[in-house]
Specification:
A hairpin with a 6-residue loop joins strand 15 and strand 16. Helix 5 packs across helix 6. The chain has 2 domains: about 160 residues, DNA methylase specificity domains (Adenine-n6-DNA-methyltransferase TaqI, Chain A, domain 2); about 130 residues, Alpha-Beta Complex (Adenine-n6-DNA-methyltransferase TaqI, Chain A, domain 2). It has about 400 residues and is an alpha+beta fold. The chain is built from 8 helices and 20 strands.
Length: about 400
């Protein structure tokens, strides 16, 4: 590569890097691999901007879910440990990685193998930086994000910095060491958040089932797991307090951009521009890991996954916030009676409709809601602070990697 061309590339997007590093086109660093599986028996791998290359089975919500929508995995592309796998449709957002596994991947993805003279892990980190993702976007073909494709000829035409092999190795080790510390920090913060949530749950549990008056006369509840409850409170089956329905979309039907909440799967809420429902409701997982545990009180226009239940048109005898708190804290106790395992795989609509809810008079509900808000405010602040610290340390990790791969780490 000519000196003038190198300077133009540095000025245009690569910026500064150590003077003794090379600048080479990716075609001089990787070759494309197109070996195909004969019977599709190998480990199916998925590609994610968040987790890199992982076994597809690790992302399944249920063990009996199909590992792929394809009729057969024959002719899928083979992947070896150390290969670079790129989802060419999402290269611009970092859906790529160096595989730590042997396996197979979608025929629509590209598989590349680094030359023996270089460390593939270095380029895995380099290509995941915002700098290179922006360059991948510029070289992708398509009009809108969902149609962009980074084809091999364009990928190979992009220039990359190339440190000497020993420096590549040192950079990789530095990133791994720092990442390990950061990951330990994040794990500790997540555990702290779980403890705070448990504390919050215990605060709510007492008032949501016993009320505010410690001297209130109690009676034995007809619901075994509730124990004694205030004598003047009533018990309703959920079917009489609201309407319940499931969403009409699979994850594949989601819209990745939009201004309204969309409960894509049992564990996550994403954004979608949808008009399936307009009002106040409560969403919970009906299937998968989060069943009966994850609730979200939502208001406005939204859509939701077919394995998610919506509670809507809530009765005038109960305030939606009170119902939300009661379900959040108590539903899993009831569901466990229907499943002997430690986690509930799914909950069917008839069981859900028969779930029993304690309902105090409206004025008591208002007092309980206000008490919960007051008593849990400090806990919520602590949770928000911990979540912010996690986001900040993730940003620091991205910056650390970006500096290290460009030879700027201190």
């Amino acid at each position: 590569m000519k000196v003038a061309e190198v300077e133009n590339i540095k000025k245009s997007w690569l910026g500064e890097y150590p003077s003794h590093w090379q600048l080479l086109r990716i075609k001089n660093l990787f070759r494309e691999i197109d070996n195909r599986s004969v019977n599709g028996d190998e480990e199916l791998l998925s590609v994610s901007q968040y987790t890199g290359i992982t076994p597809k089975r690790d992302s399944l919500e249920n063990e009996d879910d199909f590992i792929s929508n394809a009729e057969t995995l024959e002719n899928y592309k083979k992947v070896a440990v150390g290969d670079l796998v790129i989802n060419i449709m999402l290269a611009w957002n970092g859906s790529l990685g160096i595989s730590p596994y042997d396996g197979i991947t979608s025929p629509a993805y590209c598989v590349y193998r680094c030359l023996p003279s270089d460390n593939p892990e270095y380029f895995g980190y380099l290509f995941s930086t915002a700098l290179f993702k922006a360059e991948f976007r510029r070289n992708s073909t398509g009009i809108i994000d969902s149609r962009l494709r980074l084809y091999s000829d364009k990928f190979f035409s992009i220039s990359s910095v190339v440190p000497p092999k020993e420096e590549q190795d040192r950079i990789v080790e530095h990133i791994k060491a720092q990442s390990e510390k950061i990951n330990r920090f994040i794990a500790a913060k997540k555990r702290f958040i779980e403890l705070l949530k448990e504390q919050k749950s215990s605060v709510i549990d007492e008032v949501i089932t016993k009320g505010m008056n410690p001297k209130v006369k109690l009676k034995k509840s007809e619901v075994e797991w509730l124990g004694e409850v205030p004598e003047h409170w009533k018990t309703y089956r959920l079917r009489f307090l609201c309407k319940i329905t499931t969403g009409g979309k699979n994850t594949e039907d989601r819209v990745d951009e939009g201004e309204y909440p969309f409960y894509v799967r049992s564990q996550t809420i994403e954004r979608i521009n949808s008009y399936s429902y307009d009002g106040v409701g409560i969403l919970t997982a009906g299937d998968g890991v989060g069943v009966g545990r994850v609730f979200h009180l939502v208001e406005g226009k939204f859509d939701f996954h077919q394995r998610v239940y919506l509670f809507y048109e809530i009765s005038e005898v109960i305030i939606s916030e009170f119902l939300f708190s009661f379900l959040q804290n108590n539903m899993i106790k009831e569901l466990m009676r229907y499943n002997a395992k430690s986690t509930v795989d799914s909950v069917r609509l008839p069981v859900l409709k028969d779930f029993q809810v304690l309902v105090p008079p409206i004025e008591e509900q208002k007092q309980i809601i206000q008490h919960i808000k007051t008593e849990t405010a400090t806990i919520d602040t602590a949770i928000s602070k911990a979540e912010l610290e996690i986001e900040l340390i993730k940003e620091y990790k991205e910056a650390m990697i970006a500096e290290a791969v460009m030879g700027k780490q201190s």
